[in-house]
């Protein structure tokens, strides 16, 4: 009797359906059916409307605020475990609470570690995510973590721009490793911005380390939240003689007045993935889907094939 690998099914949390549908289409299947029962007080209960016994299930859910997204993912993982799924992979394109990866002052939590423990306690057997805010978050898990890099989809786009005198820039010291990795593949120069914050999301001062005069600059970062750092960096670089400034940010959080800052800044273009849905359209924002990347890696994981080719950085 020949053995056939059990099929895999893909399901989505409510706020990630827009991306999960594209992932499922790229994977070559249809999104599994989940219903959500809601109580009048706001409590909710997910239910799988098809059998998943003995199967590998991929649960697609970016855990951006509010916390209902994370709670919905946890409940779906628990439901899949109790429905006897064989493997439960939490596919988290944007891993929320990742900025809380350490104690940066007394009497604060390490939120990323707490989220990791919650996911494992719920029953996740594997985690798949993209461009974590801090690489060491992988070590918070006892289960396998597939940490994908959006550079695999951004780099071809940058090459297609055919920019002369290209310089890669990091908006802060913490992103210098990412900037150098991009510059290695693009064979370009690197500049670093040094910033001093007076509070969270508030940049008090910024200095530029490196030369940008006569250069086409691309800022690279893992996320853009209020947009304060990137727009301030772009304006500074234009003042210093840069020909143009673009930005590549994996996760488009874009909270507060971020859209207005981008529109009024010297940024010529902001390139992001669809790990988080845009709140509104903007002529300056270009979205590149990460669906094909996740679908390809999910295929490889299900077939027990190597995914090392997806780790460009």
TrEMBL record:
Q: Does the keyword Nucleotidyltransferase apply?
A: no
Q: PROSITE patterns given for it? A: PRPP_SYNTHASE
Q: Which EC class heads this enzyme's classification? A: transferase
User: Which key words tag this protein in UniProt?
Assistant: ATP-binding, Kinase, Magnesium, Metal-binding, Nucleotide biosynthesis, Nucleotide-binding, Transferase
Enzyme Commission designation: 2.7.6.1
> What residue stretches are annotated with the Ribose-phosphate pyrophosphokinase N-terminal domain?
9-123
**Which residues are the signal sequence here?**
none
Classify the source by domain of life.
Bacteria
Q: Kindly give the NCBIfam families that the UniProt entry links to this protein.
A: PRK01259.1 (NF002320), ribP_PPkin (TIGR01251)
Entries under PANTHER family matching the protein: RIBOSE-PHOSPHATE DIPHOSPHOKINASE FAMILY MEMBER, RIBOSE-PHOSPHATE PYROPHOSPHOKINASE 1, CHLOROPLASTIC
Q: What is this protein called?
A: ribose-phosphate diphosphokinase
Q: Which gene encodes it?
A: prsA
């Amino acid at each position: 009797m020949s053995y056939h690998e059990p099929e895999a099914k893909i399901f989505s949390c409510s706020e990630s359906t827009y991306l999960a549908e594209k992932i499922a289409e790229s994977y070559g299947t249809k999104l599994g059916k989940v219903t959500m029962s809601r109580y009048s007080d706001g409590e909710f209960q997910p239910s799988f409307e098809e059998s998943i016994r003995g199967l590998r299930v991929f649960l697609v859910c970016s855990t951006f605020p509010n916390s209902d997204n994370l709670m919905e993912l946890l409940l779906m993982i628990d439901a899949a475990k109790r429905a006897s799924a064989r493997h439960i992979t939490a596919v988290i394109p944007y891993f929320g609470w990742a900025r809380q990866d350490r104690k940066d002052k007394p009497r604060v939590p390490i939120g990323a570690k707490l989220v990791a423990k919650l996911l494992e306690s719920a029953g996740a057997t594997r985690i798949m995510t993209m461009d974590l805010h801090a690489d060491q978050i992988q070590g918070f898990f006892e289960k396998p973590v597939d940490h994908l890099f959006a550079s695999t989809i951004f780099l071809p786009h940058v090459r297609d721009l055919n920019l002369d005198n290209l310089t890669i820039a990091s908006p802060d010291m913490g992103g210098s490793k990412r900037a150098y990795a991009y510059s290695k593949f693009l064979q370009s120069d690197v500049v670093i911005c040094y910033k001093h914050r007076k509070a969270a999301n508030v940049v008090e001062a910024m200095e530029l380390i490196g030369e940008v005069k006569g250069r086409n600059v691309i800022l690279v970062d893992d996320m853009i939240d209020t947009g304060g750092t990137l727009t301030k960096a772009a304006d500074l670089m234009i003042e210093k003689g840069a020909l143009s400034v673009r930005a590549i940010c994996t996760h488009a959080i874009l909270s507060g007045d971020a859209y207005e800052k981008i529109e009024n800044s010297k940024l010529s273009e902001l390139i992001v993935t669809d790990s988080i849905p845009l709140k509104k359209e903007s002529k300056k924002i270009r979205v590149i889907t990460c669906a094909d990347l996740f679908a390809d890696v999910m295929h490889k994981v299900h077939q027990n094939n190597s995914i090392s080719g997806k780790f460009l950085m």
